[in-house]
Write a structure and sequence with these properties.
- This protein has 398 residues and is of the alpha+beta class.
- It has one domain: Cytochrome p450.
- It is built from 16 helices and eleven strands.
- The protein has a six-stranded mixed β-sheet, with helices on one face.
- Helix 8 runs antiparallel to helix 12.
- It starts with a strand and ends with a strand.
């Protein structure tokens, strides 16, 4: 197997990973040396697309030391992200009823109202705003928190915990950052343990109550699975959408022709969201483990090897997409893999698309002179490799 070394936590790579992805698409899958050991990095669209749904050879179950799993936010319990059928099917079925197209459509008026409140606050500022802090972060947190039945006064606290957990996915961090990660895991698990007990005594119409009822009835969620499920919904329910909104507005601001095209053609928004997902995918890669010794396009890979399926690299593959480094909001077809596909296709994809479309539309409508405050300044990104999320994006409104 070809040897290839790079550091995905290097600030230069974080600022623009796509040149490295171009190299990684060349030749067979590469064995990479990372701070936590070796893994296989699969970057070509054809390979990523095929392996995303290859349950025969690849597993979602984390083949990691037990002590590593226990200190994570899920406490070693199975989740939709870390399980295979039949457990995955059981877990996904429990929550899928709350992410149906009708349920998502029913949320639209509330999402629009929340977005309107946030954009009104932006208008009251002195001609500029910070995209992540003022819009991309609070909106998804508000939406998923309301679905979970979390009190509004806890929104900021939850986001702080979520940030610490996501940034904890960086083995180069230590000291205060590692301490923040541990404290956030303890805090979020402690909070939801108490909330689960409250829902048992007094159930409501929220997702936590629905999962408690499933646990207590016929779906047989274990106690650990129930807690892990609720934590996963909070983390996944806000992080991907936050990143999609931030990356999307940044890409539009850097591609003025496409921004003005979207202003002139509002009906282009659904295609625009798909292209923004392809162009700078919120989730850069997903993790799998080989079930047995396999051969990946001529490369022998031992059993229990970690495999990174690089969604973002696949989405820029010139073998699949013409002019892949160009943002084209009308791109057709656009079979990107930003949300994966198959049984592990992102459950919240429809919700993320809707929130991003509403948020971007509201900002473009309210601020006709929207532009980056510092167009030449490098954007810094948060510590997680798998999730490509800007730290801050300052924009001028006029």
């Amino acid at each position: 197997m070809a040897e290839f070394s790079f550091n995905p936590w290097d600030p230069e790579f974080r600022a623009n990973p796509y040149p490295a992805y171009e190299l990684l698409r060349q030749g067979p899958p590469h064995m990479l040396q990372l701070p936590r050991g070796q893994l296989v990095f699969v970057a070509r669209y054809e390979d990523v697309d095929a392996l995303l749904d290859d349950a025969e050879n690849l597993s979602n179950v984390r083949m990691l030391p037990r002590e590593v799993l226990l200190v994570g936010p899920f406490g070693g319990a199975q989740t939709m992200l870390t399980s295979d059928p039949p457990d995955h099917s059981r877990l996904r079925r429990l929550v899928s009823r709350d992410f149906t197209p009708k349920r998502i459509r029913d949320l639209e008026p509330e999402i629009r109202a929340l977005t309107g409140e946030l954009v009104n606050k932006l208008s009251a500022q002195n001609g500029d705003f910070e995209v992540m802090r003022d819009l991309a972060i609070p909106l998804p947190v508000m939406v998923i928190s309301r679905m979970l039945g979390i009190e509004p006064e806890n929104y900021e606290t939850f986001k702080r915990w979520s940030d610490a957990i996501v940034s904890g996915n960086n083995p180069t961090l230590g000291g205060a950052a590692a301490t923040d990660f541990r404290h956030a895991v303890e805090a979020i698990r402690g909070y939801f343990t108490a909330e689960i007990e409250k829902r048992r005594r007094q159930p409501g119409e929220d997702l936590v109550s629905a999962l408690v009822a499933a646990h207590d009835d016929d779906e047989a969620l274990t106690e650990d699975e129930l807690l892990a499920f609720v934590v996963l919904l909070l983390l996944a329910g806000n992080e991907t959408t936050t990143t999609l909104i931030g990356n999307g507005l940044l890409a539009l601001a850097r591609n003025r022709d496409q921004l003005e095209r979207l202003r002139a053609e509002p009906a282009l928004m659904p295609k625009a969201i798909e292209e923004l997902l392809r162009y700078d995918a919120p989730v850069q890669a997903v993790l799998r483990f080989t079930r047995q010794d396999i051969n990946l396009r001529g490369t022998d890979v031992p059993a229990k090897t970690a495999v990174f399926l690089a969604l973002a690299a696949a989405n820029r593959d010139p073998a699949q997409f013409a002019h892949p480094d160009t943002l084209d909001l009308g791109r057709t077809p656009n079979n990107h893999v930003a949300f994966g596909h198959g049984i592990h296709f992102c459950l919240g994809a429809s919700l993320a698309r809707l929130e991003a479309a509403i948020a971007i539309d509201a900002v473009l409508e309210r601020f006709p002179r929207l532009c980056l405050a510092e167009p030449t300044k490098r954007i810094d990104y948060r510590g997680s490799f798998a999730l490509r999320s800007p730290d801050a994006i300052r924009m001028l409104t006029g």
